[in-house]
């Protein structure tokens, strides 16, 4: 008996230590970014375009471009992801074909982002002739986050009790109305959790937008979805690799990283607020 309690204490200690280490590492990363980047954060840095070969000025075009690409990716990935999850969970007959599809989705989640970037370049930019644009970049990022959203949506739909469906169908309600009015509203908080994960990945990817949407430098804001844009991840990459005086731009690099983290957290916060509102409306 004493040995069993000892093993339990050791296991709990290891779990607690792991959580503490992760928290300390995350805190260390955030602290390092803040201490190296806070000095350049100002109103001009956020509201003005870069100047002097991007060694001075601000990053406003990159902020706007990142928001456009992220929102576009969610607008594309979320409807397709939810629709796919509804089909796989509610309509598809469970069998070999569905298992193959799910394996394909899981494999797609592990594909490197640079492969998605090359796919977007070949299909959206060249074949469909969208050019380097917000549309091509958003479509590429939408396909990139699709597996994450499908997986989270499937689990959220499965978490809705089967009795809800049976009660609705027993009252003569059609299957689609049951899904639309009963299942989907109760699954939305879980679906939004997957969307939050997708937002973080879409906003922080460099390789896909490098091939499909990001401009090295442009001071003007986009006027249509067919314009190319600056983006924070690619801007950070350029500052860290393409300059002749990289050390001189180090504060701007970390300041840009700090802004990118803030943009991602801001978009995530909106999704979290919506998720909390949906959860409060649930009656089970």
List the helices and strands and how they pair.
Elements lengths: L1 H36 L5 H5 L2 E2 L4 E2 L2 H32 L4 H14 L3 H15 L6 H26 L2 H9 L4 H30 L2 H6 L19 H10 L8 H32 L3
Antiparallel strand pairs: 1-2
Helix pairs in contact: 1-11, 3-6, 3-8, 4-6, 5-6, 6-8, 7-8, 8-11, 10-11
Q: Which properties best describe this structure?
A:
mainly alpha, MetI-like fold, two-stranded antiparallel ribbon
Number of helices: 11
Q: Which fold name corresponds to the CATH topology of the domain at 62-232?
A: MetI-like fold
Strand order of the largest sheet: 1-2
* Secondary-structure element order, N to C: HHEEHHHHHHHHH
Count of DSSP E strands?
A: 2
Task: Give the N-to-C terminal Cα separation.
Answer: 39 Å
Mean pLDDT: 86
Describe the global form: globular
């Amino acid at each position: 008996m004493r040995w069993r309690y000892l093993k339990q204490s050791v296991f709990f200690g290891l779990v607690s230590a792991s959580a503490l280490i992760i928290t300390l590492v995350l805190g260390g990363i955030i602290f390092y970014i803040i201490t190296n980047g806070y000095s350049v954060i100002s109103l001009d840095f956020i509201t003005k375009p870069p100047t002097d070969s991007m060694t001075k000025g601000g990053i406003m075009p990159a902020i706007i471009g990142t928001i456009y690409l992220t929102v576009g990716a969610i607008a594309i990935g979320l409807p397709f992801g939810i629709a796919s999850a509804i089909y796989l969970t509610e309509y598809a007959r469970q069998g070999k074909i569905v298992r193959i599809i799910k394996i394909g989705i899981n494999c797609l989640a592990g594909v490197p982002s640079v492969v998605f970037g090359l796919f977007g370049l070949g299909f959206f930019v060249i074949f469909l002739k969208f050019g380097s644009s917000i549309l091509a970049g958003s479509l590429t990022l939408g396909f990139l986050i699709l597996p994450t959203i499908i997986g989270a949506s499937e689990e959220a739909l499965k978490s809705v009790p089967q009795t809800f469906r049976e009660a609705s169908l027993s009252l003569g309600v059609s299957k689609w109305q049951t899904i639309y009015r009963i299942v989907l509203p109760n699954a939305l908080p879980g679906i939004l959790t997957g969307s939050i994960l997708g937002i973080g990945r879409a906003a922080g990817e460099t390789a896909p937008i490098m091939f499909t949407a990001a401009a090295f430098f442009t001071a003007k804001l986009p006027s249509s979805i067919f314009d190319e844009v600056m983006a924070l991840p690619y801007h950070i990459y350029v500052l860290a690799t393409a300059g002749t005086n990289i050390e001189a731009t180090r504060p701007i690099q970390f300041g840009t990283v700090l802004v990118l983290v803030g943009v991602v957290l801001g978009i995530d916060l909106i999704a979290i607020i919506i998720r909390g509102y949906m959860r409060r409306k649930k009656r089970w």
